[in-house]
Amino acid sequence: SNSNTVAASADAATNTTNDQNNNDNTTSATPNTADDPPLSKKALKRRKRWEKALQIKKRRKEQSKEIRRIKAINEGRNLDAEREQQKKNEKEGKGWERRETLWRERCNKGNIDESFRVCFDCNFEDQ
């Protein structure tokens, strides 16, 4: 009966390590399929470091958004009215119209007839 308890404790230890490895793999962005080989310790560390960096980046982005929102409120701006105005302008196409007129002016400004010329080097034929 002593050998049975030792074998049972060994099985339990391997199950917990397998569960830990499975938990490490399931937290990743790409799930480990049956065809893929198991990740090495280095790869797991690398993936955890990458995920931690992504979380930090996401948190900083949210903080900066919150700071901008607070600044706007402190300046007395009505954010809801600004969003409504943006939607209205987008529906009316004012921004596209403005960019399109700027583009047309740019195209008309460059005189294509005088900008591109072909030059022949007569000395080249003598060689």
Question: Which helices and strands, and how do they pair?
Answer:
Layout: H1 2-26, H2 41-74, H3 79-92, H4 94-109, H5 112-115, H6 122-126
Word description of this protein:
The chain has 127 residues and is mainly α. Helix content is 77%, strand content 0%. It has helices spanning 2-26, 41-74, 79-92, 94-109, 112-115, 122-126. The longest helix has 34 residues, at 41-74. The chain is flat, with a radius of gyration of 33 Å.
Features:
127 residues, mainly alpha, 6 helices
In short:
This protein has about 130 residues and is mainly α. The chain has helices at about 1-25, 40-75, 80-90, 95-110, 110-115, 120-125.
What helical percentage do the residues reach?
over 70%
Number of strands: 0
Instruction: Report Rg.
Output: 33 Å
End-to-end CA span:
102 Å
> Whole-number average pLDDT?
77
Uncertain regions spanning at least 5 consecutive residues: 1-7, 16-27
Please trace the helix and strand order, writing H or E for each element. Answer: HHHHHH
Portion of residues in beta strands equals under 5%
The tally of helices reads 6
- What does the largest sheet look like? none
